[in-house]
Amino acid sequence: MKILSTIKELFILSFATAIIAAAVYFLLIPTHASISSISGLAIVLVNFVPFTMSQITMFLNVILLIIGFFTCGSEFGYKTVYTSILLPIYLWIFEKLFPAISSLTGDSLLDVICYTFMVSIGLAILFNRNASSGGLDIVAKILNKYFRIEMGKALSAAGICIALSSYLAYDVKTVVLSLLGTYLNGIVLDHFIFDHNLKRRVCIVSPKNDEIRQFILNDLHSGATIYKAIGAYHLDEHEEIITIVDKHEFQKLMTFLDTVDPQAFVTVYQVSNIQYRPKSLPERKFA
User: Fold this and answer.
1) Alpha-carbon dihedral of residues 88, 89, 95, 97, nearest 10 degrees?
2) Where in the chain is the domain with CATH 3.30.70.120?
């Protein structure tokens, strides 16, 4: 069963990487735009070194993999190594099969838009499998780990440098297109991919707190914390229930609250990072 599971995992990673490679080769290369990827940088460097784009991408990915192992350790396991090596191999295959590639849409801007959404699909699959396509994804993960920069914004920051490098080989129009594509790429990744991992911190004050607590524990199978809260106006003492839930659990919780206590006082905050440090936490009453 373990072998079958591994084969299935590799198939999914290969499929996602194929999507990314196809987007790069058929949509990005014809525009000469350098957008948020090592492949984008390779599009520029191919004008200055006697190597193909797939060879340059392979070399840069290997260098970044080594850096990733030293900085993030086990976070870059066999999955990222596999996809980082597989991506330039796909590009090499496309170079051999389709040597004379031209714009699929006939419009550079439309190519860039299609590229952004197509790449996002592939990256979403990889990140949900705790992998990446290598390259700037590794840089983004390093920035995310050490500087707490959101992945989409980290990719955009690194991608801006790549986009500006297109000025070395192409005209101003290509530079502007690269910058716009990099910005759009960051927005799409942030909104449609990484927002999926955001959780919500829900704070509830209600006289039905025991029923709400039981629902959180037994129906959502989640945890909660109870704090003593004092209202500033009448100085009445209440119990505030705080829980962390994902998008699906949040919807179920809100539906339950509408049924059991429509007048409950609820505040909601987005949570992008959760860390548990038991030695540094003050004593709390956990439900």
Assistant:
1) -150
2) 198-286
Three-class SS state of 229 = strand
Q: Among candidates 189, 121, 181, which has minimal Cα distance to 154?
A: 189
The predicted structure's pLDDT at residue 55: 92
CA 46, 48, 51 angle in degrees (round to 5)?
A: 45
Nearest to 142 by CA among 80, 59, 85, 78: 80
Question: What separation in angstroms does the CA of 135 have from each of 129, 158, 200?
Answer: 17, 10, 31
Write b or e for each residue in 248-274: b if 16 or more Cβ atoms lie within 10 A of its Cβ, otherwise e. Answer: ebbeebbebbeeebeebeeeeeeeeee
Average pLDDT, integer, range 266-281: 67
Beta bridge partners of 9: none
Cα 131 from Cα 68, distance rounded (Å): 13
Q: Fold for domain 198-286?
A: Alpha-Beta Plaits (3.30.70)
How is residue 241 written in tokens?
């229930």
* 286 burial via Cβ count (<10 Å: 0-12, 13-18, 19+): exposed
The residues near 7 (Cβ < 8 Å, ≥ 6 apart) are: none
pTM of the model: 0.69
CA distance 84 to 131: 10
Does residue 151 contact residue 191 with C-beta atoms inside 8 Å?
A: no
Lowest mean pLDDT among 122-126, 145-149, 187-191, 207-211: 187-191
Q: Which amino acid makes up residue 151?
A: M
Give the separation between CA 117 and CA 178, rounded to whole angstroms.
15
